[in-house]
């Protein structure tokens, strides 16, 4: 194997505007844009760029990585863990940039899912219709306000559900378990969706959670509360790459889920073409029987940070059979680095 070493790490900051004006979540949270961190790793003879995570911690980690082989992702991760405890978001940015150098896509088509912010029932139904017109077959519905209104929102969103469409209902940590149960009890019994819990889960043990939902007919998925053990009371998970610290640790969680028979939806907090390249790269390694959907992050923001070669046909996305993760960052959009290490 030809010698390859990290020579330089550049960090970029860019604000990604939400294309719909204001992105609303439970609890009155509103976002007009998303603060993104882009990491570029330069080796002796090639450059790879990728986004994920935040800038916190990179200044402490980056100097310890100069001279390492970026293709030895586990060794790079060992060095990051030795340099700094925690700070998974910062490590994710560097880790995925290493995978961009190392990885080569296989081209497995995967179903994509959109993200519908909190709105009224009628507006939610219109959002789903618009996403369907763009080719999406999976939908993530944001809830977490009044249980009755949330139930009406879910019912409206699924009113025109077609065969093959998949719905996730996600409160983004803004709903307590009492509200979740009240919402579920107001729904028609034949609605087909998966309930995603995140910050709500720690209020109950696995045994209590299993008991509370034993009378419910809807599958239960864990989002960011799922970390490493397959014994959570869940039928599937939403695997967030940056929450796990990148692709290297994300694939470990993937293996645990596959062994436990759980379905996996690969997602990310970052909203960009660059984030999508990491999602596609990990998603294509999940066996089809365990693969639920992947989040297409491009539909959320209006600023294009990179050109990608991903093709969407009939609601399914395919990775290109080209070296790396199939992404070409637009350096004119990223501007000058806010920090550099070499």
Automatic annotation (TrEMBL):
- Which InterPro entries does this chain map to? DgoD-like, Enolase-like_C_sf, Enolase-like_N, Enolase_C-like, Mandelate_racemase_N_dom
Q: Which UniProt keywords apply?
A: Metal-binding
In terms of Pfam families, this protein maps to: MR_MLE_C, MR_MLE_N
| CC cofactor | Mg(2+)
The chain positions of domain Mandelate racemase/muconate lactonizing enzyme N-terminal read 50-110
Keyword Metal-binding part of the UniProt annotation: yes
Q: Is the keyword Metal-binding assigned to this protein?
A: yes
Q: Which residues form the Enolase C-terminal domain?
A: 124-331
- UniProt GO MF annotations: metal ion binding
Q: Which family does it belong to?
A: Belongs to the mandelate racemase/muconate lactonizing enzyme family.
Its name, as the record gives it, is Mandelate racemase
């Amino acid at each position: 194997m030809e010698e390859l070493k990290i020579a330089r790490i550049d960090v970029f900051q860019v604000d990604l505007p939400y294309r719909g004006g204001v992105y609303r979540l439970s609890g009155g949270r509103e976002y007009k844009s998303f603060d993104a961190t882009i990491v570029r790793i330069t080796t002796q003879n090639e450059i790879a760029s990728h986004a994920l995570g935040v800038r916190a911690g990179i200044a402490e980690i980056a100097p310890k990585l100069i001279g390492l082989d970026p293709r030895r992702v586990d060794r790079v991760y060992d060095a990051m863990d030795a340099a700094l405890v925690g700070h998974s978001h910062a490590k994710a940015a560097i880790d995925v940039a290493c995978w961009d150098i190392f990885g080569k896509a296989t081209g497995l088509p995967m179903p994509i899912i959109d993200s519908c912010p909190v709105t009224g029932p009628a507006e939610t139904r219109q959002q789903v219709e618009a996403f369907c017109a763009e080719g999406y077959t999976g939908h993530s519905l944001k809830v977490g306000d009044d249980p009755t209104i949330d139930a009406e929102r879910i019912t409206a969103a699924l009113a025109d559900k077609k065969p093959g469409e998949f719905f996730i209902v996600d409160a983004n940590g803004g709903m307590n378990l009492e509200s979740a149960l009240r919402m579920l009890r107001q729904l028609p019994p034949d609605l087909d969706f998966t309930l995603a819990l995140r910050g709500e889960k720690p209020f109950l043990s696995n045994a209590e959670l299993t008991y509370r939902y034993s009378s419910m007919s809807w599958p239960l998925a864990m989002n960011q509360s799922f970390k490493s053990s397959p014994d959570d009371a869940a039928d599937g998970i939403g695997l967030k790459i940056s929450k796990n610290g990148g692709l290297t640790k994300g694939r470990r969680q993937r293996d645990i889920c596959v062994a436990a028979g759980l379905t996996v939806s690969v997602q990310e907090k970052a909203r960009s073409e660059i984030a999508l390249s990491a999602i596609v790269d990990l998603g294509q390694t999940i066996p089809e029987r365990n693969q639920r959907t992947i989040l297409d992050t491009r539909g959320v923001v209006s600023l294009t940070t990179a050109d990608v070669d991903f093709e969407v046909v009939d609601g399914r996305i395919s990775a290109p059979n080209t070296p790396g993760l199939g992404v070409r960052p637009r350096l004119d959009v990223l501007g000058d680095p806010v920090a550099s290490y070499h």
